Amino acid sequence: MARPLMDTYSPPDIDFERGEGAYLHARGGARYLDFISGIAVNGLGHCHPAAVKALQDQAGKLWHTSNMFRAPGQIELAEKYCRDSFADRVFFTNSGTEAVECALKTARHYHFAQGRPDRYRVITFTGAFHGRTFGAINAGGNPAYLEGFGPRMEGFDQVAFGDHEALKSAITEETAAIIVEPVQGEGGVRAIPDVCLRGLRELCDEHGLLLIYDEVQCGAGRTGKLWAHEWSGAAPDIMAVAKGVGGGFPMGACLTTEAAGAHMKIGTHGSTFGGNPLAMAVGHAVYDALTAPGFLDHVTDIANTLRQQLSGLVDAHADKVAELRGRGLLIGLKLKDGYVNKTLAAHARAQHLLMGAAGDNVARLAPPLIIDETHVREAVAALDAALGALEPQ
Ligand SMILES: *Cc1c(COP(=O)(O)O)cnc(C)c1O
């Protein structure tokens, strides 16, 4: 058989045709409970009526003009993002990795604009994931993603996750910024303790560094706050968001304070599609749903229910599961040596539960934020059966 696609992915042999709420329907009629939601993307579930309507209405009006012209909805969505966060300025992108690129460029350009072009280095952490463009793989520092793609890009200094002394000694006169995911996603669903985020904020203030949060995965309500860092009270200077903010429509954004972003003048950055009318229409619908009264309280409540039941599972399968990780509805089950996260996901699929895998042998759950107790019970029963079937490898 011809293989027209690059072999970069290895999807299972299922063809999904339709999604509705927390469920995906495959050709042939099988129904799956979706507890990975497009990798923390479909926060409102599949085909949320408000998002569908927003997209359909906009599709009949205007698709694209490029940023040569004002895109309908862009200023208004940026205003909403700023109204409810630390930010004063927004740049819209199509993806997470582009939001990260914008964040890194903005951080370097900030020091350039201050007459300090020599301050360009960015401190990153082991286990980080920031996307797959050249800048982002170099920031992420994962050797598996860098191998075969030429020399390492200059200007990134990676320190071990949680090693405070290494972090302090990595800061030099050339350091521009620190980039961190408040909850590491791909790296193994590891939440940074609130006190550590506050420590990073203090360190950045002390040394004149910009603090960049990558909330591409943990943001958009997933932890029960609109942005994950809100739990800590430590605001960034720059933040990259994507995944959940579009609810399944490709979009992202780079948010900055006035001080960290006002120097990005005409010509310093750009995108043909970023912030286009279709993305903005869906972006408004998703944002309005996430910020509707009670929505985030629901996320916290249902996350507590799910986590409680999962810790019961961890105890019941203590020979196979080492710990429960993450925050809110970004959840990791770290498996013990000898058991493989991807095999667990395959067993879960056989139980018609969809889940993912992350680094560090962690099985990942990122259900839609709209799940209720019925979904929780169904997922926990399926996962219980999947763990029961899991054999050492
Ligand atoms: C997924 C992800 C990215 C990359 O987003 P894309 O939309 O795939 O480019 C960047 N950072 C984090 C934390 C992510 O989880």
From TrEMBL:
One of its GO terms (cellular component) is cytoplasm. It is found in: Cytoplasm. It is an enzyme of class 2 (transferase). Pathway: Amino-acid biosynthesis; L-arginine biosynthesis; N(2)-acetyl-L-ornithine from L-glutamate: step 4/4. Pyridoxal 5'-phosphate binds at residues 96-97, 129, 214-217, 272. The keyword 4Fe-4S does not apply. Keywords: Amino-acid biosynthesis, Aminotransferase, Arginine biosynthesis, Cytoplasm, Pyridoxal phosphate, Transferase. GO terms for molecular function: identical protein binding; N2-acetyl-L-ornithine:2-oxoglutarate 5-aminotransferase activity; pyridoxal phosphate binding. It comes from the Bacteria. N(2)-acetyl-L-ornithine binds at residues 132, 271. Binds 1 pyridoxal phosphate per subunit. Its cofactor is pyridoxal 5'-phosphate. InterPro entries: AcOrn/SuccOrn_fam (IPR004636), Aminotrans_3 (IPR005814), Aminotrans_3_PPA_site (IPR049704), Class-III_PLP-dep_AT (IPR050103), PyrdxlP-dep_Trfase (IPR015424), PyrdxlP-dep_Trfase_major (IPR015421), PyrdxlP-dep_Trfase_small (IPR015422). The modification N6-(pyridoxal phosphate)lysine is found at residue 243. PANTHER family: AMINOTRANSFERASE CLASS III (PTHR11986), SUCCINYLORNITHINE TRANSAMINASE (PTHR11986:SF113). Belongs to the class-III pyridoxal-phosphate-dependent aminotransferase family. ArgD subfamily. May also have succinyldiaminopimelate aminotransferase activity, thus carrying out the corresponding step in lysine biosynthesis. This is Acetylornithine aminotransferase. It comes from Alkalicaulis satelles. The lineage of its organism: Bacteria, Pseudomonadati, Pseudomonadota, Alphaproteobacteria, Maricaulales. The gene is argD.
